[in-house]
Amino acid sequence: MTAGDVDEAAAVLAERALELPELEHARTVAAYVSVGPEPGTLALLDALRARGVRVLLPALLPDNDLDWGAYTGPDCLVRVRHGSRMALLEPAGERLGPEAVQQADAVLLPGLAVDARGMRLGRGGGSYDRVLARLERAGADPALVVLLYDAEVVERVPEEAHDRPVHAVVTPSGVRRFR
Predict the structure, then answer these.
(1) What H or E segment, with its residue span, contains residue 114?
(2) What is the pTM (predicted TM-score) of this model?
(3) CA 52, CA 158: separation in Å to the nearest integer?
(4) What EC identifiers does the entry list (predicted)?
């Protein structure tokens, strides 16, 4: 996809995601900043913030777990390189702790694909598997939403015992729900 295609898809994804009741009524949303060719999230983050939603963004810890910080706008983002892996945009400022995600009414999860059952294929680092396990242990039940391109919704992805299904996937062509 060209940079223009990615930007156009990001705008459509933001529009579709903002129509979700789960995000429309959310007071706190845990999200992420897209990198590279991932479906763009910045337009959505800014729109949520403009609605008065508290947006939490992850900061990768050395053990691949996630800490969280508040998103206060594009100026709060700093590029952080974690070893030899790609650089991520993370929120500058106060860290709220890994448990902060438990306050979220909705969690936007990155992914490479989602299948017909709602199972998400991540990048393999386990960061969001830890987040989902933390939410489950705490009895928290936020809406779990993945933003993808249409071709990334597939029939089946590999699944392990710790994997949990998401509730919805948003693509440029629409929303698919799994609960």
Answers:
(1) strand 113-115
(2) 0.94
(3) 38
(4) 6.3.3.2
Cβ distance 127 to 64 under 8 Å? yes
Q: Which of 50, 178, 165, 27 is nearest to 109 (CA)?
A: 165
d(CA 9, CA 11): 5
Per-residue pLDDT of the chain (179 residues; tens, 9 = 90+): 787 888 889 999 999 999 999 999 999 999 999 988 889 999 999 999 999 999 999 999 999 999 999 999 999 999 998 877 678 999 999 999 999 999 999 999 999 999 999 999 988 788 999 999 999 999 999 999 999 999 999 999 998 888 889 999 999 999 999 97
Report the Cα 27 to chain-centroid distance in Å.
16
The Cα 98–Cα 40 span in angstroms is 24
